[in-house]
Amino acid sequence: MNSRIEVVTIETDVLIIGGGLAGCMAGIKAREHGVKVAIAEKSNTLTSGQAGSGIDHIWAYIPEVHGKMGWTMEDLVEDHVQDVGHGFASRELLHFMARQSYDRVLDLERYGLRIRYDDSKLPGKFRLVHQFHSIPSALNVDARPIKAILTKEAKRRGVTLLNRIMMTDLLTADGAVAGAAGIGTRDGKIYVFRAKGVVLCSGGKTGRLGRESIGLDFNLHLPANLCGDGKAMALRAGLPIMSMEFLSPRRLGVAHYDISGGPPRNTWQPAASIVNALGATIVPRTCFYEWGDLEKGYRVDAGESRRAWLVERRTLAASMPTPKTWQETGPLYLDCTGGTEEEIRYIEWSLSNEGKCHHFLKYLEEEGIDLRRDKLEMGPLSREIGNLSCAGLVVDANLETELRGLFAAGDEVGGTPFTASTGAFTMGWHCGDVLGQRAKEDDTLLPVDGEKVESLRQLCDDLLFARHGCHWREVGYALQNVMDSYCGEVRTGPMLKRGLDCLRDIRSMPLKAANPHELARCLEVKFLIENGEMVMRASLAREESRRHPTHFCRADFPEQDDRNWFAFSATRLEKGKYRLSRIPIR
Ligand SMILES: Cc1cc2nc3c(=O)[nH]c(=O)nc-3n(C[C@H](O)[C@H](O)[C@H](O)COP(=O)(O)OP(=O)(O)OC[C@H]3O[C@@H](n4cnc5c(N)ncnc54)[C@H](O)[C@@H]3O)c2cc1C
Fold first, then answer.
1. Which one-letter DSSP state was computed for residue 248?
2. Would you say the pTM of this structure is higher than 0.90?
3. Is any atom of ligand 1 closer than 6 Å to the C-beta of 42?
4. Which of 136, 294, 449, 495 could lock 128 by a disulfide, CB 3.0 to 4.6 Å apart?
């Protein structure tokens, strides 16, 4: 073919797709084996991914604290499975993360992350707060510079960081991964990587499947460039993707400012509560945990602590307002005005590290809003693939997929809600370790599939040099309208089927890109459509309603059906046809 697009081929031992928390950690560890490691990152590892502007907490099992309190690793796993996942979680994966969590936190400290504080009364001088589990297991940390720290460490160890490359296709040979292909988002070239092993960790989540509530395209909780690219490429490579029907429901957050920090048991603790316009408390504030409190309140047997926590958590969950209660009883406000000076300062410190929130603090300052005096209005955030949804790639206990040599890590992995940064650090590290070791022992680079590279080149050619076509935004809006209209919070078989027809029409809308940046945006929209189709097909297959973990509601199947549906769904493409199956929950 006479293409105007240049193809660049790069050989490496280990290829990592996505330089977020998991990808950087995988690269750092793989290099310890002395092999060649490349990270292909769509953006820039310094600030890319969900942790690009910081994280403020990391859940971990800390033997010197939790062991002393009589709380075992098993208790943590059980909490996560039952209370976060409502049973929809892989115990095996959680055990793996819990076991490794503390060692990875110590690694991060060695790389330069501050995790100890002189004012702490805990052993180890940690700041620990309540978040996911029945006792405080989340380290509050100064992790705004986490991406800069990991990038520096990866560079120091000799990882090749290739920014502004968006990977689009996995290359396979005889049931194994041979590498991957993608495009340069600045130079418009096609990059073909040949590798002995690949870690897929492109973040897994997306918030771009539905319209954002205030109508601004990228005013999202998640980075806009997260589009489910990894799932789309895995689907096309014939791999199963699990739990796609469980789009996270709309949550309430700070109105018009889609930030992280979900009150009141998150970055806003200890002083935030939720009140209505009449000043009545809808969700009470949490308390400040000190080591003294920990000993007083939690040095009891773990079962007892869990039971107390369950009552509190269920009360909290029941009182937590949804968009429906917001519409019926709003406006609602986030209220920190009862906090002491010390508590407000603590919240501001936490917020200054949490994703997107230092911009938010600046905004508060510019608008003259003071948490000591002013309440913040709450509103619904966008729906997402991610967090509670457990959606992602199916992996075995070693984090390998069905495609030999292809591993997945972090939010890309399905089966466990809120693995969060802990999942990224632990899984990334493990994938880097296994693939680094394998690459050292085996010299084989498999041949790459030239046809696949050629069809990517043809596609890019068509998009870049098309005379007519739609702007990527137009097609993106069409997709969001279809998802919101036919696959909303309440779904039915006929509506989903009609939605699938509409998706077919959207797929046939011709796209046109004016430059390499728009080329990437066009490809993102194509990947979003593939994700949307998976969501619809998995929703159609699940013939039940299930309140937890994600308020999945089929109006034509209103009952929960544990006998048939207490299972993950798996969606895959076989010879161009979708096939849905169930994966038992272990
Ligand atoms: C605002 C916010 C605040 C958060 N705060 C916390 C917190 O305090 N504590 C906590 O534990 N967790 C927190 N999380 C969650 C945590 O950040 C994620 O769980 C974690 O970053 C997941 O790591 P990951 O490497 O899987 O994905 P990410 O860190 O999102 O990285 C994915 C990377 O892949 C790249 N990429 C995407 N597509 C492609 C492609 N096609 N080709 C190449 N590269 C690609 C992206 O640019 C990105 O760099 C927060 C999340 C958000 C959004």
1. B
2. yes
3. yes
4. 136
